[in-house]
């Protein structure tokens, strides 16, 4: 590939940027599951804005609504004012998401991003319970601001804070010690033993499937047991569905099949529908205790976000997403499961479900190499896990079957090159 120069970025932008170091080009255009760079090279997108583009780049149905709204001088920014756009979103969210589940959670707009949703969740859980500790899990990822980083397990990311991150305890996630250890029993014993040094936390925060932490899945029974454990001890359950929500695993929430009803739910990324920054924190009504103004934020009244999110829910309601995801899930699973069969030198395991799956390489450095080779062949994919050992595939849910198959062919070619 002939690639454009990155001098402007190298000279002017902070060194902290990471993704562009893997994808060394200047991107210009995107449509559904494909991107084009400035030189006209095409890339297939198996990254989907880290989960923010479940409905594809430039989704036409959503774009039309946004353009119409702007052409009618619709208000874009409104702080906490009541607007048509917000009213429509709230009603639609209640109709499509809350009512079918029999839930009556309040919708809070905590600010524009995932970490805002998590910060609000942690803060209100502490206010409600009067306790300060939050129980989190090995390999958890919840965001990069101080509160959410304190419940994130990755030590490299934690060191970015420059201070001690406190008021969190980490427990083993489901499967952390393999199948033989009952991690819930382990946690219960520590919580109930006054000699353990583990305080009763304000809340437990958990992902049903850990996106950044290596595509580790919690079983339904484990999630159900965790909910029970929390209830019995008056601990709030926070479910962080920032990356796995909005259909990524098939159902709207990644924990739907566990039949749990978390006290607090964090959503962001694809809730904005169009890659627009938006986040919500769902609170059971009895937890909605903040006085007006006790928690606020300038950009939580993002009306373009409401317009896009409303249409995304419309889109969700009218399309049979679950079936689309299942069909695509199977195609990807087959390719991943074949890796160690075709290339015995690549030992490892297939992880994830729905349209977030990956291959965890025993030789950890191979995942990063694979991502580099794939980029050279026009496929965008990232790694995940504490050693970046998992090659992670998460295309938009709307990816056309042909594009998906084309992307997987590129993956196969890249694997072949990796093995050579
Ligand atoms: N929680 C989870 C589970 C995430 O995957 C992420 C982002 N990768 C966040 C929170 C933080 O979201 P944001 O980057 O928008 O702050």
UniProtKB/TrEMBL annotation:
Keywords: Aminotransferase, Pyridoxal phosphate, Transferase
Keyword flag Transferase: yes
Assigned EC number: 2.6.1.76
Alphabetized Pfam families for the sequence: Aminotran_3
InterPro entries listed in its UniProt record: Aminotrans_3, Aminotrans_3_PPA_site, Dat, Ectoine_EctB, PyrdxlP-dep_Trfase, PyrdxlP-dep_Trfase_major, PyrdxlP-dep_Trfase_small
GO MF: diaminobutyrate-2-oxoglutarate transaminase activity
Cofactor requirements of the protein: pyridoxal 5'-phosphate
Pathway: Amine and polyamine biosynthesis; ectoine biosynthesis; L-ectoine from L-aspartate 4-semialdehyde: step 1/3
PROSITE patterns associated with the record: AA_TRANSFER_CLASS_3
Source taxon at top rank: Bacteria
UniProt record similarity statement: Belongs to the class-III pyridoxal-phosphate-dependent aminotransferase family.
Entry protein name: Diaminobutyrate--2-oxoglutarate transaminase
Organism: Paenibacillus polygoni
Organism lineage: Bacteria, Bacillati, Bacillota, Bacilli, Bacillales
